[in-house]
Every structure is written in C-alpha cells, then in structure tokens.
Amino acid sequence: MHGISHLFIPGPTNVPEEVRRAMNIPMEDMRAPDFCDFVTPLLQDIKKAFRTETGRVFIYPSSGTGAWEAAITNTLAKGDKVLMARFGQFSLLWAEMATRLGLDVDLIEVEWGNGTPVEEYAARLEADKDHAIKAVFVTHNETATGVTSDIEAVRDALDAAGHPALLFVDGVSAIGSIPFEQEAWGVDLAVAGSQKGFMLPAGLGFLGVSAKALEIAASDSPKMARSYFAFEDMIKLNDTGYFPYTPPTQLLRGLRVSLDLMLGEGMEAVWQRHAVLAEGVRRAIAEWEGCRLVAAAPEWQSDTVSAIYTPEGVDARDVIFGAYSKYRTSLGSGLNKLAGKAFRIGHLGSLNSVMLCGALSATEMALRDAGAKITPGSGVAAAQEYYRAHI
Amino acid sequence: MHGISHLFIPGPTNVPEEVRRAMNIPMEDMRAPDFCDFVTPLLQDIKKAFRTETGRVFIYPSSGTGAWEAAITNTLAKGDKVLMARFGQFSLLWAEMATRLGLDVDLIEVEWGNGTPVEEYAARLEADKDHAIKAVFVTHNETATGVTSDIEAVRDALDAAGHPALLFVDGVSAIGSIPFEQEAWGVDLAVAGSQKGFMLPAGLGFLGVSAKALEIAASDSPKMARSYFAFEDMIKLNDTGYFPYTPPTQLLRGLRVSLDLMLGEGMEAVWQRHAVLAEGVRRAIAEWEGCRLVAAAPEWQSDTVSAIYTPEGVDARDVIFGAYSKYRTSLGSGLNKLAGKAFRIGHLGSLNSVMLCGALSATEMALRDAGAKITPGSGVAAAQEYYRAHI
Amino acid sequence: MHGISHLFIPGPTNVPEEVRRAMNIPMEDMRAPDFCDFVTPLLQDIKKAFRTETGRVFIYPSSGTGAWEAAITNTLAKGDKVLMARFGQFSLLWAEMATRLGLDVDLIEVEWGNGTPVEEYAARLEADKDHAIKAVFVTHNETATGVTSDIEAVRDALDAAGHPALLFVDGVSAIGSIPFEQEAWGVDLAVAGSQKGFMLPAGLGFLGVSAKALEIAASDSPKMARSYFAFEDMIKLNDTGYFPYTPPTQLLRGLRVSLDLMLGEGMEAVWQRHAVLAEGVRRAIAEWEGCRLVAAAPEWQSDTVSAIYTPEGVDARDVIFGAYSKYRTSLGSGLNKLAGKAFRIGHLGSLNSVMLCGALSATEMALRDAGAKITPGSGVAAAQEYYRAHI
Amino acid sequence: MHGISHLFIPGPTNVPEEVRRAMNIPMEDMRAPDFCDFVTPLLQDIKKAFRTETGRVFIYPSSGTGAWEAAITNTLAKGDKVLMARFGQFSLLWAEMATRLGLDVDLIEVEWGNGTPVEEYAARLEADKDHAIKAVFVTHNETATGVTSDIEAVRDALDAAGHPALLFVDGVSAIGSIPFEQEAWGVDLAVAGSQKGFMLPAGLGFLGVSAKALEIAASDSPKMARSYFAFEDMIKLNDTGYFPYTPPTQLLRGLRVSLDLMLGEGMEAVWQRHAVLAEGVRRAIAEWEGCRLVAAAPEWQSDTVSAIYTPEGVDARDVIFGAYSKYRTSLGSGLNKLAGKAFRIGHLGSLNSVMLCGALSATEMALRDAGAKITPGSGVAAAQEYYRAHI
C-alpha cells in the first residue's frame, strides 16, 4: 500500500507533526529537580481547555475509561443512587461500569439517535425531594451515534430543582473539540482522554474535578475503595509538580505542545473550526441518496463525529471494509445495534478541508463499491462549496 | 547544556533507538480488521518474557501501580488475609495499597538492605493450618534499596507447607532484566511495567496471571469491585486480538520491537548481560572509600540497581543534584529513610559498558564535588578491568 | 493551520513514513569496518531501479543538477558537439549548463507541450557522417510541461544511423516512476535524483553510467576538468564499499528502505501504479471546463506530472496561491513562459487514490475561487470512478 | 549490541536531539510563497557563525569537498599559481584537487604534526613581487593530525607583503568549533561543512565568500568552467530567498536549529566549551604511558580532534577495531602515513564531559586489549579532575 493512511475514526485522532516530534525524545528523569517546572504549568494550562478555574484536572496514566472509574470511586459510595440515560454504546458502557462498581443506577432508555432527555431528568430530579440521587450522569457526545447532549440544560434542571447531586459528564469525544464550560456549567466530574480533541495517542485519562467534588472526595463521607485512581495521592504529588507513580513523560511532552496549539488558537476558534468541518461533512451526507444521519434531529448533530445509516440493502460493514482495504481509509464502524446499519466519519482533532474531501471521496467510492446508488462526487461537491465559503 | 543526557535511574530506562522509531508512527485504527494480526502474536510473545505458557499476560494502559491493583482486585476480596514484608519504599507502598483496598495485611518489618524473610514466611505459612492467608506477596527486586529476593524459595516454602495461597510478585524492576520464571516458580500474579527491563516509556502495566489465578478470578468466590482493571473484559477482547478500551497503540508498536530485541537475544542472555554490567558497577563501588551498598549482604545484591550509601558527612542529595546539574547525569535518589544517605545507580535496560563507565565517571566527579574523598578514576578503572574480561 | 499539508508538486515528493523512520537515526561512522556491508548491496540494488546490469550507478551528495554536471564533465571535452532539444524549463536549463561548460550545443527548439523530436534527431544523426556529434541529450520527462519523450525511439535512431554518440538522459522525474530501461535502451548516462520517484528528500544525485561510458571516462581521450564529481574516485572507493568524501548517511539509510519498497513491489508494478493514478487525474482535468493539458497530444502525456492550462482569464498563480494559503495544498507553478498560464499537479512517488481525490478537490476549490467556471466535484467524480475500476 | 553507539570520530559528529527532531518533518514545497521567509534569515544567520558581515555564505547540496571546488572554480583560472602546504591527509587532498583542476600549485611539504609554515609563506609572498601567486591556501584544522594553523598570522604575512592574493581557508573541522573570524582575518574563501561543528548530517557544503572574492567572481577575469557550483545562480536565487536547484530542505530545517543553538550560546562560549573538553582529553592522553599526540608542539594542538600515537608495538588499527566491535565506540583512524600508528578522538560538536569520560574509558579498554601497558582509569581520572574544575 502506498501513500499515507487516512484516519477518520472518531478517535484516536490524527496526531499533528508538532506533537509527534515533541514525543519523540529520549527518556527523561521524572524525578529530576526541574521536572516540576514542566509539570506545574502543564497542570494549570490543561484547566484552560476544560474551562475551569476553581477545580483541578487530574492526568492519569490510563484510557478515558480509567477516568470514568476515578470519577466514581473518589466521590460516590456503593449503593449510591445515580441518574443515567442510555442511547448509544458509550453511555451503555458507562452505565455498565456504574452498575459493576455497585451504584444503584436509575437508567432511562432513550432511542438511539437522540441524546440526554433533559425534561425527564428534570422531572426525576424535581421528584427526588429527599435527594436520594447522588449524581447525574450525562454523555456529552455519544460517539456511537454522533449525538451531542445539552449539558447546560441539565445544569439548569439541577438548579431549578435545587438539587445537590453531582454532575458527571463524559466529555471524551467533546472536550477540546466542541464548546465545553466546566466552571460555567457547574460540571463536577468531567472525563476526557488524550486521544480525541487533544490530538495525542491514547494513554492519558483526564478528569476535571470541581471544587465541590474535591471537597466531597476529601470528606469523611463513605466512598469506594480505591488506590491507583485515588485523588489524595495525585493532589499531594501534583502540588509539588510531580506524580505519585511514574507518568508517561512522552505523552506529557506531547500534551504540552497540543495545549500550546489549542490555547494558541483559542478554544472558541477550535470549536468553530470543528463546527465548519462538520457542517461540510453533513452537506455531503445530505447529497447521498439513501443515506441519513443516525442523529434523529438537527439539535442532536455532533460536530465531532457523524454516524450515517447506509441505504437499504447496503451493509455498512462492506463500506468500512472496502474503505480500509481498497482506499486505505479508516471509518468508524457501527457499534452494537448499529452494526451493519451505520458507519461513522470522525471529524475531530487535527484535520482540514482537503483531508475531509479525501475522506468523503473514499466514502463515496466505498459506498458505490458496496452497492449504494449515490452520485459520484455529489457529496464532495457539496462539501467543497461549503468549505470555499466558510474557510 | 550540550551533548546527551545520561539516564541512570532505575527506571524509566533508556529507550533503544529501534523502539523509539517503532513508536514514532502516525495514529492507527485500533479497530482495523487486521489490527488483531498484530495483537495476537504480541500477547503470545510477552508471555515468553514472563516465562509462562499456561497463563496469560494482560497489558493495561496504566503504570505498574495499576497492575498491582489489578492483581489484587481480581483475585482477592475485602478482608482477605495476606502475608507481606516491608523493606523498602516500594514494598511499603504495595502494603499501603493492600491496606487501602481493604486487605488484612500480615506485615513483617524487615531492616532495609535485606529482602524477603523466607524463613519467617515459611514459619507463618506452616502455622496457618486453616489457610486463612489467601495470598503471599513478594517484592522481587526492591528498587529503593537494590535488594533482590528469592522467589523460588518462597514457592518452596508454600509447597513445603502445602499451602494454597496465591503467590503475588512485584517484578516491576526485575522481569525482563534478571532471571524470572513465572511458570516454573509457580508465580500466580506477576506485576511488571513497560518502563524498566522492557525499555519502553511508562504507560503500560503488565500482569502475568497463572492458570490457577485465572480460575479464581473467573469463579464465583467474592472479589473486589472493579471495572477498568477487570480480567473478564480483557480476556474477552484479547481473545479476538483487540482491547476493551482504546489501547496506547504507539506503546504496543514499541513493545513489539522491544520483545523482538529481548527474545532475539534470548532471555538468558539478557539476564547474563545485566549480571555483567551490574558486577562492573559493584567493583567500582567497592573502590570508593567510605561508600557501601545498601544491600546488606551479597545474596541480596540486585543486578538491576545499586543503592549506595555515601561516606559519612556527604549528603547524597548533593551528589544527585550535582550529577544532574553539572554533569547532565540522572542518578536515583534515596527514598524515604534513605533520603540524603544513599543514592542509586540504575543498571537495567538498554545499556553498555561504556555508558556505565560514563555514569561511574559522573558519579565519581559528583561524589568528589560533594566532599567525598574517593580516588578519581578508581571505580571506573575497576569497572573497566571487569568489563574487559567479561564482554 | 490544522491537519496535514498536501504536497502535489512534481518533486520533492512525499517521503513515506518507513523512509522517514529509517533516516531518523543517530549519526554513524561512515568509515566503520562494517559500513561497507551496508553500502555494497545498496550500490547493487540501485542498479535494479535503473535497470542496468553492466553499468554502475554513482550516488553523489548533490542535487540532480550535480549529476547532470557529472555526466558531462566525465565523458565530454570542451568544444564537443552535442545534440539537444528544448521544450520546457528543465531541458532549457540543461542546454544552458552544456553551453556554460563549453559544449557546442546543436539545439533544436520545440514548441512547449511537445517532446523530443525523434525524427529530427534521426535526420541530424543520419547527416552526421563523420560523427561530429559526441552525445545526444534527451529529457525523458520534461517536468515543466508534463511531457514524456520516447527514449527507446532515440536509441533506435542512433542505431539506425550507426552513430556512436553517447545517449544522455535526464530521468530526474522519470526513473523510479515510469518505465525506464537503461540497459535495454542503451542509455549511457542516466541522471536521477533522490527527491522524485525515490521518495527521499533532495540531497542525492544519481547517475547511471553504461559500460561504454565508463570506458570513455577512463580513457585518455580529453575530458573536462573535474574533481568533486570525478568518476575515478567514486569507483575506487565504491569498490571497497565506501565513498571518497563524507556521504549523507541518513539519506543512504533512507535510500535502502525506499529501494526495498520499490523492488519489493516490483518496478513494473511501480510504473503501473503511476499510470493508474495519473490517468485518474487526467480524467478529472478533462471534466474541468476551459482547462486542458499542456501536453499537446496523448502520446506526450506524462504519468508523473500534469501541467494544466487554466481557463481564459484565470491566472494560474491565483490558483496556486489560493490552494497553498487557503487549502494547505502545494501545486506546481507554471515555469518560465507558462507562468500565470498553467499550474501543475505532481502525481509521482508515495501517493494513493484518496490523496489524489483530496488534491483534485483542493484544485477544484482553488480554481473556482480564482474564477474558473468548472463544476464542483466534476473532476473528483471522474477520478473516483476511474480509481474504483482500476485499483 | 545494546545501549547507544558512541561516536568520537572527528566528524560527522553527534546530531543533537533538537536538530534530529527539526529534520524529521514531512517533505515541504521549496517553492512555496513563504519558503523565502525561512531562507532569508537563515542565510543571514549562518554569516554570524562565519563572523562575516560584508560577505556571503553559500549553502551547497554537497559535501565540504564540493565547497572546496566551488571556491576554486569561481575565483581562479586554469594555470593560476597558488601557495599551499601539505601536512596531513586533508591538506594533501586539497592540493590534489587544485592540481586536478589545473592550478599551478606551489606546494610546501611540512612534516606531519606541524601546521602551516607561516614564515615560509611570508617569505614566498615577500619574494613574489609581481604577484604571480593568486591565492594562498591554509588548512585551518588538519583533521588527520589534530593540528591547528594560525590563520591570522597568514593574513598578517599577506598584509606585510602587501600581497593581493586571495586567502583560502579549509575550515571544515574548525568553523563552528574553534575561533574563526572571516571578516577580521580577511579570509576570502572559507570552506565548511554541515557535519562537524554545525552538528548536522553531511550533505551541505558551506562557503563563506568575502566581498573581495565576490567581486572577483563577478568580474570578467578568466575563471574555470562551472555550473553546479556557480556563484551567480546562487546569488540570484538566494537574493529572493530561494535556491537555484532543489535544496535538501530537511537539512536546512536542521541548520536553523543548530544555528539557534550555537548563536544562542554565543560563538565565544561554543569555542570555550570546545577548548575545555579538548584539554580534558589531552590531560588523559598525557597519563597514558607510551602514547603521545601527533601534534608536534602545544601550539599546534587542535581543540576539535586529537590524533594519538599508540605505544611502540601497539597497532592503532587494533585499538580502533576493538573499540568499535567490543565497546561500540567509533574512534578516528590513522590516515595515510599514520595508518596503524595513530588513532584519533574527535571532540567537536554536541558533547559533554561525561560522554568524553565514556570515550576515554573505551579508549583505555581498547588500548589495554591491544597490548598497551597504560594504567586503567588513569586518563579518565585526569580528565575528571580537569572537568570538575573547569565546568
């Protein structure tokens, strides 16, 4: 196979050359006297990507899944009641983890293609007069369906009900790509990972923790047994500019550069860039006869990933396999109940219009190879015209 | 500062150029149809470094500390009694984790500089007629003191007592560097990490699990709550050649090459190489007036790290700081009660005789700068003569 | 700017990741006892890309221009008569060099868009009964106009005339990409460079020399003063596996891998791949209203680069500048008399169909931005359909 | 073989990590509209390393040998008389090139170990009343013998004689490492290469040209035929921020960083650093029984390379081969008449004290393996004590 591979899965995302270079360094001494001079500003600057000032962001050597667990075990106790909704593979897995860790999950089933049912959340919170619900979980961006939920509305529901429950947000495929405001939205536990909007390889789990959640974690209230993910060790060492166990220094060096890129551009500009690239993709999809977004309504459409139903009779697995094997292009597969019915185009991270025109071309070719009767070039043309006007 | 940095901490270790190159790749699709063709043999080959055939080795996106936790939570339950000994910073931290996770730790205090008290272990196992002890923990190589314990002797003690307890081994600074035989020694849970003998950056925790431990993990017997580190998810996905959550693919590509290097050389040859380089270092230390190993007797001397007491009146922190700031050389610090009294030279991983002569030179200069009355070149000369004869 | 840059100039070409990795190595000793074990097979294998068995290929630390000079100074003398044709910027520069070095250039002017006038060559060779013409120069692939000449036909003309003149070929943008047969076609001096089909950075000039030319170079016949590019030093040292002056070892390591890639694929397959990708581009151009190839007839169309006239009233410089600054895509500019009138798409080296669909998209957008009335997506669609059928 | 290779040849030198990273980039468009924004300051800044303000520095895709040729062909004509001295392999090769290119070489033979005979030069210049001598050649640092000549004294001799001859300096292993002042010393043609003090791979030849030499080159006076190395093309394109033929962009990106490192440190500090490291090496050599410098007197000792006679009966080739094969350390070989009698330690470029202690250890081991009766550690000890006091 010749030329480059084309990666359009919704994470891990393409790593910019600057970040690759920053990671390609000899091993260093993570207890060197000046290592803290590197770590301390890093821990400050990642807070800017989460948009929190009074909280902390922990950096775990783990995947985002590990940060999910850290969020739960440090703030909740076995048997605690939590409110969750399930509308895709990742919200499903999160609920599964919560159950495994012993939480009492009040789970709302939502049809895939829709997102967090804010009104239902509001109703249950309103009804929970004795505050049995300890935490409300929201999947900000359901990566499996390309659906974005409204975090701010959930915060409003909590406030309207005067409910003290913690607000947990899975922002893995959102933070660093689409608008996210930990402080302004009162998010208590915000989970992210290195391999999406942060444009790094997988290997770091990020957890933004509000002042309120830090207080609860430090309090005597019952919590789960934990050690690797315990906040207290992280806090103690982070405050000196070090880590409680050997950190993946290469990834931290890469994070330094990716934060420099993001903050140098400005988070608002980063979000806007994602919105423009995503809209071009949607314009393309709209041209493909028989294809449609899994997102059930415009309000749910995600700017980081589009999940697309293939036309009747066209197996999405053929599209994905063909794109990969014939056109060296990785698309995201349809997960769980979407298997065979949908495929996904990731459009987050380090991308540009021409890369997406390539991805759309690969998709058009793979769709046609798989039997779809779309018009060649139709989607690319729509995307081109949108990009011409908006870049 | 000019020229290269010299890294002689006992991990993370120097990453070979071949491994660095293997990791410096564009991001790839960890769900690609052929990704399993890469993962399946990798999971087989890492078993060869652990010397196990009937067990499994799990690869976690975590530090070695995470693998400690995985070993405990998957096989033991809250309140289970375990036998441990504490003779350095890492055995101390492991015992602390066990306590935090709710184990009933039967802790034997051993003077630092000595290793696992096998006779005492044997006595307690013998006395434990009703098998209240569920697991025996052994720190194979105590990185803080440069002390290696005799795992095989602990196995013999278990067998002599006919005791069914699981044998846990912290092999983080041992496996891949000094003789380790998971299968032959009947080790049930063997913890390692990417950043020591495996010559990779930190970021992967390895856990070798015996068939017996796998069976216990899969059984209905009570265990701790766990999700991120749960064996069952790993087994299910690993069996298909994939991982339950996004793996750090770059590190896996690096692991492929480091395993190729290690297995290509042969584990016995790897161990022998470490033994020769270590002995050269000890010959040097023996020449330094007023210095001596923390290891209290030759039987405890580690071939992966030497902890060295500075002469009376010489603060080890000055040696370390001087080596780092004036000679661009990182030595390991004295941890906990050894702070200021000892420093460490890591001699594991990708090293050679000339690198160690450089490290010994830096140490000699830093020792003299810090006030030690050692003879310049004395240690280097002894190492040189040893290396000349044994390489 | 985000995402990757898109490079579609006709060289330097995209460097494959495997080659980049091979070049990213610590400096090595180019006089090490085993360096020859690397060089000797390299010098053999590069001959396979030139398709010569009885000749040699010299590797100069220079650009391709340096190899032009080496070819001339080692085999010709001041005042020697040579036959050349000028039909683009590179054949023009070559003729200029020949004049500067003191050759008596019999220069045939050909309208740009056409290639080597074989019949005219044949006529002049036929007429040259006393063999005053010492060498015949042919630009295999005129990079400025996207025109490929017929080397074999020139050889036939020489043979038909029974003419002993040396056959010089500028194969810089041909060798390694389109069919080239040094031995079979009786090419005496074949010039190439590292930065085109060989997929390396610039920095190596390659010169394939036939047995006949080597003999002339070694003979007592008058030649030009030369030192840096002298064959004799190269031959003497190359025969031992070394070089007469410090070679760019990183580039040589990269060359090893690029040859492995090319020869592993097979030269015929490499050529075929270029033909397919090129035809897709031409299908796209054919759809663009008002655009046409500079190549005046199908027989001249190059499979490594297409030069394209912009529609009336559209300044090609605007297209190029827009593609670069708005779409991060580098196209080739119109050189000399083509400035403003044409732009070029390089389609040689490490490319694939999706990369070219991206390049065509960028071109379509830039053309429309510059005022061209082409139909969006029209070219991409044609290319897609061609690639679907031929890959 | 494990661990890193140790490179202590007098060039190519160790490439700093920062420079390696800067070179490891995707291919770029060397005709991009903003490429000149990179090139123009680069061409200015390299002048600071040559210490010239009124001249130019040309950057050729070639080795340093190519820059030798460029210097001659652009300013001298066939038959011109030049004054040269021969006292090592590189001054010998330079004289050979001059002869080949048709110069009338007035060659002074000097015993190897000594440098440029300034008094003899002065005498001949004084005697040359009609200024038949067109140029005076000086090898600043004879890399084969580790001998540095006094350029300033040669300038004084020229001035004292009121002689207009051009002053050519081979500064390949000097410029960027030891004091060099093109402007102040009135050097007309100063040759350097990327692979020594500039800490880059080989592949760039640098040529500093004085205003006077530029004027001569541009004048109508007879010069040699030249094309690849012609000043006029370089001047024309460099003045626009581009190059006349495809430049090795990766090396230029590396040069940017190496100049940043050098100029950031300050040339005087760079020179001082070389002086300190060199003196440590000489202190070591002085301890080795039976060894002595090839440099015949302290005034000739080079701060970039030491050539060392092995003790009677010890073949230097054994030392070099042993160091390479057993200790992974590359030393420089004895060239020409020094073959078997001497070896060389390069101490220029990106080095530090601990690297040199390693090199000295390797040398001590290899010397003893080869039969030398030196005291182990003796040289390293002397170097250590010197470095302790002077770093």
Automatic annotation (TrEMBL), chains A, B, C, D:
The keyword Transferase applies. Transmembrane segments: none annotated. Keywords: Aminotransferase, Pyridoxal phosphate, Transferase. It comes from the Bacteria. Residues 45-319 form the Aminotransferase class V domain. The keyword Disulfide bond does not apply. Its cofactor is pyridoxal 5'-phosphate. Coiled coil: none annotated. SUPFAM superfamilies: PLP-dependent transferases. CDD domains: AGAT_like (cd06451). PROSITE patterns: AA_TRANSFER_CLASS_5. GO terms for molecular function: transaminase activity. Belongs to the class-V pyridoxal-phosphate-dependent aminotransferase family. PANTHER family: ALANINE--GLYOXYLATE AMINOTRANSFERASE 1, AMINOTRANSFERASE CLASS V. This is Pyridoxal-phosphate-dependent aminotransferase family protein. It comes from Roseovarius aquimarinus.
